[in-house]
């Protein structure tokens, strides 16, 4: 009797976990593509050539900000830059690590890049969850001037960002966001953070 009760109590947790894993799988299969602010900013995981062409056609993307950084030795990078050039889309490499806090200078440089880039912008990393979530939150808060809660939603489980303090490798993104929220990221020097425009 007790074993049956314990199993029945555990079943909803197992079902919820399975549903969440299916949801995360759907995000990745679909490219984790989402509109952040219509006509201004879109986000995704690493797009295929076909997805990129579709995003440009359907959303009018004029700039790609690649948060994975320049990687000439990888097929995905060569394909992406070639497709962007063919489509007449500006390509900007802004390397970030999901495991490292984004310093004040880097935040300021990313804000400037996003302000100046032709819009709409597509921001992506590998999964479109952690680095892309932070960059999207920064755009919503610092570029679009919306409230913190609206911005913070971009760095959430709904886009695949799962962070456990001090245990998750992506927790650095949450710490970076907390610095931005509390104004402890005030930047004065933009020279230390190279971005590459192709």
Description:
The protein has seven helices and six strands, in the order H-E-E-H-E-H-E-H-E-H-H-H-E. Strand 1 (34-37) and strand 2 (41-44) form a beta hairpin. It has two domains: 1-30; 33-197, Alpha-Beta Complex (Protein-Tyrosine Phosphatase, Chain A). The termini are far apart. By secondary structure, the protein is of the alpha/beta class. The protein is globular. Helix 2 (49-59) runs parallel beside helix 3, helix 4 (104-116) packs across helix 5 and helix 5 runs parallel beside helix 7. It has a six-stranded mixed sheet with strand order 1-2-5-3-4-6, with helices on both faces. Pfam families: PTP-NADK. Belongs to the protein-tyrosine phosphatase family.
């Amino acid at each position: 009797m007790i074993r049956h009760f314990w199993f029945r109590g555990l079943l909803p947790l197992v079902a919820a976990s399975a549903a969440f894993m299916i949801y995360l799988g759907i995000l990745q299969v679909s490219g984790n593509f989402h509109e952040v602010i219509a006509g201004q900013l879109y986000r995704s995981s690493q797009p295929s050539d076909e997805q990129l062409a579709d995003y440009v056609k359907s959303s009018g993307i004029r700039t790609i900000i690649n948060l994975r950084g320049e990687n000439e030795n990888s097929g995905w990078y060569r394909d992406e830059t070639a497709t962007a050039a063919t489509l007449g889309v500006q390509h900007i490499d802004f390397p970030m690590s999901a495991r490292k806090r984004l310093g004040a200078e880097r935040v300021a440089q990313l804000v400037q890049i996003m302000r100046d880039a032709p819009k709409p912008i597509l921001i992506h990393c590998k999964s479109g969850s952690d680095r892309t979530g932070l960059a999207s939150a920064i755009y919503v808060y610092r570029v679009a001037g919306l409230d913190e809660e609206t911005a913070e939603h971009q760095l959430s489980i709904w886009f695949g960002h799962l962070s456990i303090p001090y245990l998750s490798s992506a927790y650095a993104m949450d710490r970076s966001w907390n610095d931005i929220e509390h104004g402890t990221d005030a930047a004065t020097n933009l020279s230390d953070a190279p971005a590459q425009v192709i």
